[in-house]
Amino acid sequence: MICITIIIIALLIKAAVKLYTKIKNKLNSKDEFLFKKSNSILTIAEKNFYQVLKTALIDTDYFICIKINLDSVLCVKGNKKSSIKKLTNKQIDFLICSDSIYFNPILAIELDDKWYNNIDKIVVDKFVERVYESVKLPFLRVNTNNPYSTNELREEIYKLVENYKIKDEIIL
């Protein structure tokens, strides 16, 4: 009996040492030195658009959020892992929110840049557009190759938000 207890204790100690060594090796890894802080979270096109968007919404109570994960804005009905995976690692370039307390999403804006002609990106974007439509979140796609007009952008935002408000009132 004592022999079995000693063997069990020895095995536990061996497992603990092995686990400790594994953790120590992970912590001593040089992987963290492979990173550096980015100079900007926005591309040049995104930065230029943000400046116009900020000016377009200057006299409003709207808030601009940048690069928001889609799964922070949308909730999956139930616990369907396949649906949750479809949202993972997808971002909204700009999200307009209506208040400073709950940051209620009222408009998603996606910029189309040089990558937009990529077939995989187009398929993902079409899926995301259908999701926006199904949750009644207005969506604006902006081509970065076209010049931005502050007034036109403001009018487009108001039009989209108001149209969805009207649709919601009719549906309810």
Largest sheet: 4 strands, mixed
> In sequence order, what are the helices and strands, one letter per element?
HHEHHEEHEH
Helix content: 40-55%
How many separate helices? 6
| Spatial strand sequence of the major β-sheet | 1-2-3-4
Structural summary, described in words:
- This protein has about 170 residues and is an alpha+beta fold.
- It has 2 domains: about 1-30; about 45-170.
- The chain contains 6 helices and 4 strands; from the N terminus they run H-H-E-H-H-E-E-H-E-H.
- It has helices spanning about 1-25, 45-55, 70-75, 80-85, 120-135, 150-170, and strands at about 65-70, 90-95, 105-110, 140-145.
- The protein has a 4-stranded mixed β-sheet, sandwiched between helices.
- Strand 3 (about 105-110), helix 5 and strand 4 (about 140-145) form a beta-alpha-beta unit.
- Helix 2 crosses helix 6 (about 150-170).
- The longest helix is centred in the N-terminal third of the chain and has 26 residues, at about 1-25.
- The mean pLDDT is about 80.
List keywords for this structure.
2 domains; 172 residues; four-stranded mixed beta sheet; single chain; alpha+beta
Short description:
With 172 residues, the protein is α+β, with helices and mostly antiparallel strands.
